[in-house]
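User: Working on a comparison across species. This one is Amino acid permease-associated region from Hyphomicrobium denitrificans. Can you predict its structure so I can line it up against the others?
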Amino acid sequence: MTSSASTSAPSSKAPALNIRTVSTMTAVALAVADMIGIGVFTSLGFQVKDIPSAFSVLMLWIVGGAAALCGALSYAELSAAFPRSGGEYNFLTRIYHPAIGFLAGWISATVGFSAPIALAAMAFGVYFKGVVPGSSPLLLGLAVAWLITFVHLSGVKHSANFQNISTLIKAALIVGLIIAGLAFGEPQPISFAPSASDMSYMTSAPFAVSLVFVMYAYSGWNAATYIAGEIRDPATSLPRAIIAATLIVVALYVALNAVFLYTTPIEAMAGQLDIGLIAGKHIFGDVGGRIVGALICIGLISSISAMTWIGPRVTMTMGIDHPLLAPLSQTSRDGVPTTALLVQIAIVTILLMTQSFEAVLDVIQFSLTLCSFLAVLGVIVLRAKEPGLTRPYRTWGYPLTPFIFLGVTGFMMYHLIAERPLQSLAGLAIMLAGLGVYALSQSRPLTARI
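Assistant: Here's the predicted structure for Amino acid permease-associated region from Hyphomicrobium denitrificans:
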């Protein structure tokens, strides 16, 4: 919060934020799980359609990974300086104004996490049907979303164990797929060495457009900042977790795409969505599709778990700060935001039942990107505005590091406005609708603020 925030005694609900039981390893697992979803298994087909060069495609993932790492390094400085749960809600409130932070929190608390959870849950149902024909994707999606919510309602310790184990299994399966591809896949007549044509590919419009979707696949590198209030020794653990998770995912993404290119003909992947299944058949034969489908199902469980854990922490923090939202700050004895979790799963259920999650994601993508842009810009703003601020971690490579991230996300926002003006404006409208709620919350006396 801003330095002028009230220091009145916290309410009985506030101590939950001081229960720091989450280890650095769990914070890393949370971010890795949040990043690795279905994007890496679905986007390559559209990339090779216009960029038929293995070197250029891998550079696409390396450039996207470098931009994500620049964002992670910038967030590490903010999270170490302001180690409170809430992510962008916390950062933008502290850097700019409580109203700006509220808008970021509003989009996250309403659909920013609920829509991706619903999409991942439905994807789980679709892939599970491929493994077990005859299953209902909708019922499976609802079941996995509710079951994971119950796990998180049972306590932070159970949440941490479940997240660690499910993420470890996911990473092991991806590494296993990479090794199997190199060992059993039939090498394709491609070269990973740069050629004279690669520069033209890497400066082309298709490369720039593909970068938008690559960055979307990397989204989630900031996951640990949303539970900062629960992490032990956050000044040290948060920067380590954010940076380590990003580096792990960059390595896995580049290696996985290299294996897809190494084992599967480009013409078989061009323009196709289910790249994981296509590559699986080329590596493992006819049963390969089911093997990769099962792998993706298991991986989606950890992704759903990560987002289920993160989202309610934003809502809970907003409830502590704003009396109008106070019921959402209710927690269990060990700090689980029970009301916020139940509200989130209710929204997820509505989105699944109405099949509206993809439309919602389209609408909020610009707003979510804008929040990250403002947070990283805040590193520069704070260096100028508060040079004496205690910074346990300072962004490596400053000021180049934040400028790289700002350049990439600035281009993404330009592209989103140019290509999807109605969706982008609708997302801003949803975000700005939070101003009305903020105004109402300010009309009531503030009883607690951390």
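For your comparison, note: The two ends are 7 Å apart (CA to CA).

User: Helpful, thanks.
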